[in-house]
Model the fold of this input.
Amino acid sequence: MFLRTSAISIAFLATAGVAFADGLSYSSVEVTHMDIEGTTVDNITGSFDYLTGALSFTGTADVSDFGGTDVHNLSFSAGYEFMPNMTIYAALGTSDDGRDSGSDYGIGAEYKTATYGAAIDYHDYDAFDYEVLTVAGYYEFGNSVVFGSYRDIEGTSIYNVGYTFDAPTWDVDLESTWYDEFDAGLTSIATSYALTDAIRLQTSMTTLNDDFFNVGVATLGGEYRFNDALSLEADYSESYGDNRQAQIFTLAFKWENGADRARVLDKVADFSSNSDPYYDLFTELSAGGVRLGGGGAR
Done:
């Protein structure tokens, strides 16, 4: 039933993309199945950006079944470009982590050009009783992008910096996130190489900052592109460096139309996820937790 619903969602969004081609600048649906040491995780994620004149609308929906526990995040934002490149927006969302559920409200402002962008965002999560302030930005030059963010969650600081190099046949992604001190965080490194127009091999590693390369998770996988919009990805991951080694197998089917996200925070979130294959999963499972994207931190 889960996969059947996913297929219907993909077909519906593909049809919507054609119907609203003049304003729908980005749309995607991804269906993921994971096996983590015998525990299955099924996830559907869908996103859209719609632009019309000075108005912009974005939305994201994440629904997961984590070993029988249902988790979801929904978010929506509406923005107005009141001067060239400068947009203010309001955001509304809802989260359910299987224990608590509730709504979140946010406001933000961003400045975005063809090569760089910066944003500030404030969110209040009523059900989880905390507030989040986020500042994020990126700068594109040639085949490279540098990006970063700072988040304050009730006095706890979270820092993120990264770099992406994207060439026609290969790419490299680096990203590090830490709390207060650099040692209290993770660093991810990923690279991929296109064997053909349709087949790409990829590998990545995520390691603890306080024990570089000695403790972490290594991933090896590949992607097959049916066309410019449809792709199938398979990954195998294994943890290393501790007494309990975990193995993860992932299969993901994705439909994506459009390359540039409307919100600065969504773009920074995408850059971060390029280096960590499980970025989207673990931010989805921590419903009500902090994540960049969806019109604000969530």
User: Anything to note?
Assistant: Helices lie at 2-19, 264-275, 279-285. DSSP finds three helices and 16 strands in the chain. Residues 2-285 form a domain with the Porin fold (CATH 2.40.160.10). Residues 132 and 267 are 19 Å apart (CA to CA).
